[in-house]
Amino acid sequence: MRLYPLFADLSGLPVLVVGGGSVAKRKAAALRDAGAEVTIGAPRFEPDLAAWIREGHVRAFHGEFEPAWLEGMWLVVAATDDHPLNARVAGCAKERRIFANVVDDAALSRFHVPAVVDRSPLVVAVSTAGAAPALARRIREVLERVLDHALGPLLALAQRHRRRIVRRHGDTAARRDFYDWLYDGPVFSLLRQAKPAQAEQVLLDALECNGSVHKEGSVALVGAGPGHPGLLTLQALRLLQQADVVLYDQLVSHEVLAMARRDAECIDVGKRCGGRHVAQEHTHRLMLAHAREGRRVVRLKGGDPFVFGRGGEEMAFLRSHGVACEVVPGITAAVACAAFAGIPLTHRDHAQSICLLTAHGKDATDTLGDQVLGNPRQTLAIYMGVEKLDELAARLIAHARDAETPCAIIENGTLPQQRVIAGTLATLPALARRHAVKTPALLVIGEVAAFAREHAWFGELVDEAATGVPPRRLVQREVA
Ligand code: SAH
Fold it and tell me: Which of 114, 224, 345, 363 could form a disulfide with 125 if both were Cys (CB 3.0 to 4.6 A apart)?
């Protein structure tokens, strides 16, 4: 390791930035944020720096660099675009035993400024010792994604109660267990749920109680999105990377599952056993058993857990058994498939509302009247509809939807094998049969579905009408 990593406490210490441009401004701002007393020296200052000087946030030397500027400084940053001048600043600093950083010049720098991920009081610093600062930034971005923002409050809490923790757990091994519990258990989980007072109470209770803390499990109902791994949320990714057990559904893609922690136990609960899905009660029992054994369980569901996903039932079950449960939304099929088929679900000229429906279950659409089914200015996004297309189309036409209403089926939405099949209420059932549409597929019905014929941008578009009838003209609003 060529560089010795160190975090410096600069509060109240005088430091110098040489330069008056935007780089100098950035350096001065970071030093000020760390509490240093910043002086900036240059012949001219860019407008923000000039304002900071006027308002007294930083002091200034006006003019060409003079070695006397270094008097009494702890650090100096040379941030001009004049290489010989930067070298001179570094040389003068060395003579006076002052640490110097020359922006973008590792050879001249006595200290380097790392790329940081700030979850204060936790700070992660990344340096490549000047080898490739741009790569350090990429690595910082990776860390930015995996480090939960609730880590800041967690560390602050640990800091606030550090003395009690040390008093209570004098033994290092016991203390390490305690910190593990803090990170893995209910305290961090409560902070992620934006319940800081409760988190603190749980911590205090644990410090009061005798004996060691027992590992408590948790369950997160996590939306995996429609399949494309890039459509996973950051929070879903973080929980997957911490999970001990992942209970996943049939709709969850391999690519998404591959993002789980390497040694997490992944259990398929969407499997069809002898034609039947693993019973919901079995899933309930598995979640509970793993959580009670102190594991972090991710219940991973396609799309969003609360949209046709039985998330509500699972949450109620867990809560009734006293198991902590958080919910991470996912991009639901209607939103994802529409986007990947170029269909705006609402449009000022064509659709003012959206209805998410399922065709599954006994008489699913029976209870819906004309207001939902017949409204030509409402887009219908129908889940689990492929097997009932004839019935659905007939029902909609019976509810006064025009047989010429544009429709689109999006099969395997967002996955490499995505197909969009465009038609009308009248033609779609036959089209679906001809092209052997399979589940998972989402059905979009309404004027906006016609956009797919012109704007579908991902995967394959099947548009038989393209060779014959021109697409029904959509009104394009004139933009003033
Ligand atoms: N909770 C899920 C829906 C589960 S119901 C969500 O929010 O998306 C299962 C139905 O969702 C499927 O039958 C299909 O209609 C739809 N679906 C889910 N993923 C899909 C995909 N990638 N492409 C097309 N339809 C999908």
Answer: 114
